[in-house]
Fold each of these.
Amino acid sequence: MKLLGLMLKNIRRNWIASILASAATIMLVLMVTLVWSVLSFLDQVTAEKSKDLKAIITERWQIPSQMPYSYAATLTEGAARTDDDIRPIDSMTWSFYGGTTDIKNRTLDNTLFAFAMEPQKLRTMMDDLDSLPPDQAAELDAAIAKMDENRLGTIVGLDRLEALGKRVGDRIKLFGINYRGIDLELEIVGTFPRGRYDKSAVIHRDYLNAAVDAWPREHNGEEHPLAQKSLNLVWIKVPDSDAFQKVADQISSSPYYSSPAVKCETASSGIGSFLDAYRDLIWGMRYLLAPACLATVAVVMSIAIGIGVRKRQMELAVMKVLGFRPRQILIMVLGESLLLGTAAGLISSWATWYLVNNLLGGIPFPIAFFPSFMIDDGALWWGPAVGGGAALLGSVWPAWSACRVKVSEVFSKVT
């Protein structure tokens, strides 16, 4: 306890060096927390699940996937042809529709990217929307009910809604970007809860399909260029990996999908393949940026503690004369660094967790189709561990120097 008192007293006495070292640690732990949260989320979405496993069906030889909508009826059933075949627990289809409210002056703010799908599948098949708090679930369910009643309804993420300058209840007209010539009148009936879908939107698949089907009547019987390419993805949910393998075999051996051919893979594998384009960025974050931050924390603490030790050589010599052992001095210096680093790491990680998750709604760092990332709950212990560990490592040499101070040499310099 006496050593602990001395540690705290020394930290207070050298308050300028303590504040500077703490500030540097706080910033570097912040960087590590942000990087590790992104990497932790990506690891989670690319990890295989053992139960209620999701699979994604896409065109085999082309990106982006473009399949005829006639595939939807059988793919959502897992290409089952007999009573003995495996059928999915649940399924949904995705078609991608991009539109702008100003076709002559298109910008990011007036552009809306939407999934065309069955509204009722939002709560059963979309990640994170099946486990909402009761109040958010009730609000989203009400918006879904409105979309079921009104095919013109759309649910829009909060960031997209703000960028468009609209609010719930407003009507908008979207001029088709990928579906050239197919313009949609939409009514905003609700928003997604703050988080993963802030920049997304959903429209009713029947509304888009009806617009594609109506195209020939207004264009001398000629189909829209995307009429046979309007189905982009099919998602299915199966009980386990064995069921997935059987469904994948059913799809690959089915005669229904020859032109174009399709492939079935787990959702984690599909997302992993999609993230290949970001492989170098993710590698750099994992193996360069995060270790560099940790090393910098150690160096900063080593310099700060080293300066303090050099200034306190007379004091350390007096402590030895008074009976302090080298081991006690070593523990005291290491303890000062550990207290400083742990406290700074704790402040950094807890403040970052609260600020990002409760006030900002996520880290605005879009990778692939993930617009933002929340701070992982593990950051609440990452911060103290990183700050304390790096500080302890960086203070080893200064602490060793402190306990090796020679009394005769110090006092010989006193005139």
Amino acid sequence: MVIKPKVRGFVCVTAHPDGCAAHVQQQIDYVKQKGPIKNGTKSVLVIGASTGYGLASRVTAAFGSGAKTLGIFFERPSEEGRPATPGWYNSIAVTKAARAAGLYAANLNGDAFSDEIKKQALEIIKRDMGPIDLVVYSLASPRRTHPRTGQVHKSVLKPIGVSYTNKTVDTDKGIVSEITIEPANEAEIADTTTVMGGEDWEMWMTALEEAKLLARGATSVAYSYIGPEVTWAIYKNGTIGLAKNDLERTARRIDALLKTNGYGRAFISVNKALVTQASSAIPVVPLYISILYKIMKAKGTHEGCIEQIQRLFASQMYNGSALTFDEGGRVRIDDLEMKPDVQAEVARIWPQITTENLAALTDIAGYRSEFLRLFGFGLNGINYETDVEPHLPML
């Protein structure tokens, strides 16, 4: 079938298998071009491995350090007349490339929150991989079925305490408007923390430790975001922010667990704002990203997911480097985004933005391009006018 992008709101409902493979290959090529990461990871579990920072972590571990990788994700395969999700195609592409390079790569497609997927993962690790020396937790899900209670919890993107009004942009239509979001109630706050907080990460680490499948010196990292004040009401000080606070508290508990039992460390990496499937759904944030991209590209400091994670691995976690923490005990690879001159420029531009000057004052074109690339569209060397086979089996 010929596959074209079909955008509905903040999601594209189609994905191109060849385009996704080309996008993955670009990330692999970047990591290879940067050279080997000395003393890097050798056996990695990535929870949330199919897109964004999780995919970049898997690529960096495999092609920067020659690591065995097990990717956990929840993606939809193709159906009659409908292509699979981009994460499905991404995972096939990275697995093919890793195996072609002689590297072990395995996948589990299912609910990472469930006990069953954890059990299957432990069996694969024990059988094929040996003790894990790096666990990356990069799960982004709008809902969670709790494995103990069976209750379904849904996360919300809302402020806390008072309603919040600010500019936002319809990235598809290019219309700037004001949006008002009503505050979350207590149940919504609790549900969001249950979905996006640290409980599941801790369950994974406890299961690995009890199964004796963590290597000596094992590290675990989870990804977070803080951002500038203009996004705080909906992010840092909103329901997501409270969930991320829980994630940070969990990191300290996991760090203590690891050190008590003779392993390594656990920490939070605060990463840059980027176009991802998750960030596209957050009101206000796409407009901020569009401004940020224009500023950072002009300064030559823009990074994507793969540049961010390769830098984290090569300059913080491995190569003989020592982790550098902020006052809250977090590693910050959002440092270039949060430079005072960058944020001052964001603050100057933000109040000026209208629908009419959106293209001139922001990089909305770059945002749209990057968004479509997440789904395999707009990649050089791909003929989007020809038939392509959408039905690819998971490896």
Amino acid sequence: MLDAILRRFVPDYENINDPAVRKRYGLLAGSAGLGLNLLLFAVKLCAGVLTGAISVTADAFNNLSDAAGAAVTLVGFRLAAQRADERHPFGHGRMEYLAGLAVSMLILLVGVELAQNSIEKILSPEKAVLTPLAGALLLLSILVKLWMGWFNAALGKRISSPALSAAALDARTDVLATSAVLVGLVVSRFTGLDLDGWLGLLVAAFILRSGWSAARDTLDPLLGPPPSPDMVADIEQLILSDPHILGIHDLVVHDYGPGRRMMSVHAEVPADGSLRELHDVIDRAERELGRRFGLEAVIHLDPVETGDPRADRLRTLAQELARELDDAATVHDFRCGENGHVAFDVVVPYDVSLSDEQVRQALIEKLLAQEPDCRLAIGVDRSHVL
């Protein structure tokens, strides 16, 4: 079903790394969300008038905020598809994340307003009456929202879009909220219990939770999360598949929006290797990273001494001592000079409680205890991986 819809409305829909294709995905989702949410607003508002229930009216205005969110999504995808220019050389892809953040802010605003109205209804209750027509309208809205949740989730998964994933989460939350309202009205009809204000408060809680979750998911790519462990493993496997590259470290991925990611990493190579040959190796790795992952990659060469028994022994010792501080600690850029000079960097995870200076001093003490003639220069890096 999804492929049939995409073939109709999104030409070349399988080419998801193309900004123009992503834009069409966003326009399709935004247009569907705008139209359906406006329809649901009208339907639920009628149901709210028929029942006199604040919880149903609250749910209607929740759909109105969803319509506003869909409009923001439409604008966000249009802006994100703009070409890079002099003021924005990395493009406008982050506008998609900003659109998702704006949607979440709208959701939170509506949730606060509905919570206030529901509290007022609890303090000053008015009896709500469920009519068959109102019940049918609420059931229809639940079915529509179930489809919208599936549709936005499927599109969001296809193009890895936080904005569409936020819209899917919001739709699913609406299903729960509307279901709670309907069940509550049925209970009130047959038991006489006045649950309307409390159900409105429950709807507001669903809305606030949905808004907070959506805000968190859209803030992460704006703040700069680390690459996923699977992605790191795939990148490492690709680069190290060439025997000229001995190891990698300091991997960083910068996300400028879907379809626009840049990567930098240091690659250790033999210090006595041919510079021209190693340059060709790095060029091939950068091109393959671009082809396979859509990354604009920059790989920095770090020469490593090989075949020197003393350097190999000290490197192994430094690595063993670093792992005594933390199992994930690694050593790189190891160099042995004249007069006992030894320099290297150690990478420790962010969650290691020792300060950088404490890590440095601990390693110096451990090394000098076994190699007292060394003159050490140790740098400390923090990283989530490698």
